[in-house]
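re: the backbone from monday

yeah here it is again, tokenized this time
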């Protein structure tokens, strides 16, 4: 606005800006009718006041509207297209006291495309102050307003007020209602009467009371509340330039309300030193922006911090704040997914814990480390880890963690015996053909974690490794003992060969039940047993134990393929029998001489 006014004045025409941020004397100067002038106005000229002597209006078609940035916890003005109702109001200014003209800097088509009315400010503004006043009067849900409070925005505002100690928030009114209950506190009732943003008012009153340095705190609040771009992001360097009028206003507010407000909070055991005031004041206003420097840094230009609200904050390496272990950010800006600290101050970690006490939690943590369940309790300031200590592993959390590990990694967590491996392979094979059998999938095992571990829970909770747990009994319990009793009859552990030897049945992931046997032991093998109605797969081996053929049809092999194998192998293994007729030759695992 000032730029436009300056350009008009450069042409020799008197021009004055007119907006809500002007002092009374400046507004009076703009409204003086003793000479013709150009007034560059915000939408304050639409409805808030009458500008006398206006007979011509130039309508840009644009408007400045407040938008609350949730991530920054800050309201900023953005340029938007005006509504049709606003355009009509602006045109009306030209003939309020007589005939006039309006010049619209847009087409009729643009006018037709405008929204009929501007969106209610309630939909995009910061509702913190409005929510506080609503709770001070009654309750937001009971107020009859032209536009209801948006539920999500109201919830964020109430969370902010709860962090400030102005509201006591319950998650819900009951298991069935799902409604949130928030009650204003004694401190909140005082805060509702303070003529300042609730965050700034809270910080102003407590920091003033805790330090006995009202003037210094007023300077800090004036700088934080202003829109000056802070070089190097450290506000301590801008305190000497704090606007005197705002400093005086905030100092007066502190003197009036702090003795009433401070007793509603627990007082610290010592006064806040002057050097600590910037960080403490900012932390009181924005506790979620208290941040700790990350131990690992991977960029020379930027230093990374973790904020209490869980987001990462970035400080330029050239900033004085970059070397501080703890900071409190008063202004942040997100660009390309990276949140930069534009203004802030160092904060003493002792004071950070004190002013962030409402966000301090003890977070239990159970992990599997080196095959053992380990538990710790970590003290955190919001998302910032403070310190941790080892504790006894709680049963409920151990159950959840181990179930998830089984869901992710399956039985590979445990050292299975040979019998357990066979049990699993058989049960899974039968399950693939009979839906009444459990799949023993990772998800199914995780869902039955108590049965899987069985009586070994206490052993695990006391530090035993997972490899020391025998899950064989647990697997049988999950399968069902009646089904386990059927396994040997459904799938034998071994079969007898014509040679008189027994060979173990193994389970190949692709071929199913398989026997690995030397070809000579299968001569004359006509009655091959099946498994669940399907033929066994034979991996026929040479005398040296190398695969010669794989078949699920032994009869077809001896009738069709055997002679080719015989022709190739008899010269290589002359001491072993390679008869012309494999059906009549005796089966053996011996050489000709030994036979």
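seq for it, each position gets an aa:
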């Amino acid at each position: 606005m000032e730029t436009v006014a300056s350009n008009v004045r450069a042409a020799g025409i008197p021009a004055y800006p007119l907006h809500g941020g002007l002092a009374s004397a400046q507004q009076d100067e703009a409204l003086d009718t003793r000479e013709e002038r150009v007034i560059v106005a915000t939408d304050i000229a639409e409805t808030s006041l009458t500008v006398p002597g206006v007979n011509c209006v130039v309508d840009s078609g644009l408007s400045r509207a407040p938008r609350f940035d949730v991530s920054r916890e800050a309201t900023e003005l953005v340029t938007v297209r005006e509504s049709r109702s606003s355009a009509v109001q602006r045109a009306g200014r030209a003939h309020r006291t007589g005939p006039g003209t309006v010049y619209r800097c847009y087409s009729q088509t643009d006018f037709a495309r405008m929204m009929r009315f501007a969106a209610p400010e309630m939909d995009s503004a910061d509702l913190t102050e409005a929510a506080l006043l609503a709770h001070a009067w009654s309750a937001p849900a009971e107020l009859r307003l032209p536009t209801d409070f948006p539920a999500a925005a109201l919830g964020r505002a109430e969370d902010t007020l709860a962090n400030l100690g102005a509201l006591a928030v319950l998650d819900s009114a009951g298991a069935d209602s799902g409604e949130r209950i928030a009650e204003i506190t004694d401190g909140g009732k005082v805060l509702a009467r303070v003529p300042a943003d609730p965050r700034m008012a809270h910080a102003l009153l407590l920091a003033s009371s805790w330090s006995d340095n009202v003037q210094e705190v007023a300077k800090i609040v004036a700088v934080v509340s202003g829109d000056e771009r802070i070089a190097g992001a450290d506000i301590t360097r801008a305190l000497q330039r704090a606007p005197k009028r705002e400093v005086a206003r905030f100092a007066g507010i502190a003197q009036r309300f702090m003795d009433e407000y401070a007793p509603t909070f627990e007082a610290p055991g010592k006064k806040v030193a002057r050097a600590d005031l910037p960080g403490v004041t900012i932390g009181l206003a924005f506790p979620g922006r208290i941040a700790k420097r990350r131990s690992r840094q991977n960029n020379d230009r930027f230093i990374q911090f973790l904020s209490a609200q869980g987001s990462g904050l970035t400080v330029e390496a050239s900033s004085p704040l970059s070397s501080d272990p703890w900071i409190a950010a008063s202004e942040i800006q997100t660009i390309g997914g990276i949140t930069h600290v534009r203004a802030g101050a160092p904060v003493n970690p002792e004071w950070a814990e004190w002013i962030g006490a409402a966000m301090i939690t003890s977070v239990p943590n159970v992990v599997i480390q080196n095959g053992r369940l380990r538990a710790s309790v970590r003290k955190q300031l919001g998302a910032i880890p403070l310190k941790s200590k080892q504790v006894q592993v709680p049963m409920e959390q151990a159950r959840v963690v181990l179930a998830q590990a089984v869901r992710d990694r399956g039985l590979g967590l445990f050292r299975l015996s040979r019998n357990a491996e066979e049990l699993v392979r058989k049960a899974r094979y039968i399950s693939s053909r009979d839906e009444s059998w459990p799949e023993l999938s990772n998800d199914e095992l995780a869902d039955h974690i108590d049965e899987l571990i069985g009586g070994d829970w206490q052993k695990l909770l006391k530090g035993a490794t997972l490899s020391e747990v025998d899950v064989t009994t647990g697997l049988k319990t999950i399968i069902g003992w009646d089904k386990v009793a059927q396994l040997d009859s459904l799938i034998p552990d071994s079969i007898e060969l014509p040679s008189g030897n027994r060979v173990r049945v193994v389970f190949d992931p692709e071929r199913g039940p398989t026997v690995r046997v030397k070809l000579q032991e299968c001569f004359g093998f006509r009655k091959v047993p099946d498994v669940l109605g399907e033929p066994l797969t034979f991996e026929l081996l040479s005398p040296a134990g190398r695969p010669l053929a794989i078949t699920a049809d032994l009869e077809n092999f001896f009738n069709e393929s055997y002679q080719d194998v015989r022709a190739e192998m008899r010269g290589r293994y002359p001491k072993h029998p390679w008869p012309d007729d494999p059906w009549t030759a005796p089966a053996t695992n011996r050489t000709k001489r030994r036979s």
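The first helix runs from residue 2 to 10. DSSP finds 22 helices and 24 strands in the chain.
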